[in-house]
Amino acid sequence: MKIKLPIILVGIVLLLTACSSDDSEKKADIEKEEKTISKTVNKEEESTKEQEPTLDESWFGDWVFLSDDINGSIQIQKETDNQVSVYIEGSSISTVNNSSYGNAIEGSGTIEDNKIAFKRNIDGTCTGTLEKNDNMITLTTDSEACNTPQIYLDGEYIKADSIEQEPLITEENGEFFVYGVTLGDSPSFVKHMLGNPTFEGPSEDGFYPWVLEYDKPTATISIFEGLMNSIIVGNISLDEFTNGIPGEFTGKFYKTEDDTTLYLYNPENEHLLIYRAESEDLSTGSILFQHADGNFHVGVENGWIIETDSSWE
């Protein structure tokens, strides 16, 4: 009996070793299977993500409509995932009889690639789409439900936050520029440089057939026969005006006898830049940029407007 006991112990040890080996193999197989399942799930998730439409975030922000005769804007704000809020506005005023036309839609929608499908919030019956191709945006609406035959906002746009304000006064090849615009520019180019005006249409006093009014900067741009005819800029200091004059200006300097009005004149293209003081100490005023007219030339001929040597000192 004493001889058989070690044999039994060896047998037990071998049996336990075999069981342990089987458990390790089973554990390894389970881990391998779990890794395989995990890889399969990850691949399926990646495949699902690839199939989801990409969100075009270039939609978001305020858009300026680059039109010569319509004041239009589109605002797109992200809500959740591909859900957005939409505000579309357009207005136009006739120069013939001052009749106005305008419409605005405030709604919510969904972005899918280069399209936004939206509906009006107030009732949901007005629906439409916005389709973007680079800076060209096309608007399609259910015109009857939206209470308008057409909003007339198809065309080229620019993002408002991409506009950088130019210096007050610059000169290039003898031409003056005020905030980057000059005489003869189109209304659409003015919007490209300054953004959406706060008002667009005939001037209230009827003096100008068409104006674009801005709050920032404070400016009124008159349009005659489809082109920029003048610009008036308010709230300008005398230092801003004189410091903005190009050092290489080769035109003529004029002023009135009381020094309240200063003139820069280029005889070659008739560009006339005027500073009119509006304070007792002459430190603040406004700028008028236009072509020299009969009033200026008559003033020079009669001595009301006096030429100076090279400055106003």
Please describe the structure with a list of short key phrases separated by commas or semicolons:
single chain; 313 residues; alpha+beta; nine-stranded antiparallel β-sheet; eight-stranded antiparallel β-barrel; 4 helices
Task: Please outline the helices and strands.
Blueprint: H1 4-51, E1 61-65, E2 71-80, E3 83-93, E4 100-112, E5 115-120, E6 127-133, E7 136-141, E8 155-159, E9 169-172, E10 175-178, H2 187-194, E11 199-201, E12 210-214, E13 219-224, E14 227-237, H3 238-244, E15 252-256, E16 261-266, E17 271-277, E18 284-291, H4 294-301, E19 305-308
Antiparallel strand pairs: 1-2, 1-8, 2-3, 3-4, 4-5, 5-6, 6-7, 7-8, 9-10, 11-12, 12-13, 13-14, 14-18, 15-16, 15-19, 16-17, 17-18
Please, could you describe this protein's structure?
Strands 11-12-13-14-18-17-16-15-19 form a 9-stranded antiparallel beta sheet. An 8-stranded antiparallel barrel has the order 1-2-3-4-5-6-7-8. It has a two-stranded antiparallel ribbon with strand order 9-10. It has 4 helices and 19 strands. By secondary structure, the chain is of the alpha+beta class. The termini are far apart. A hairpin with a 5-residue loop joins strand 1 and strand 2.
Supply Rg.
36 Å
User: How many strand units?
Assistant: 19
Q: Which structural class should the secondary elements be placed in?
A: alpha+beta
Ranges where pLDDT stays below 50 over 5 or more residues in a row are 12-16
Helical residue percent? 10-25%
- The global form is elongated
- What is the straight-line distance between the termini? 132 Å
Give the number of helices. Answer: 4
Mean pLDDT over the full residue set: 84
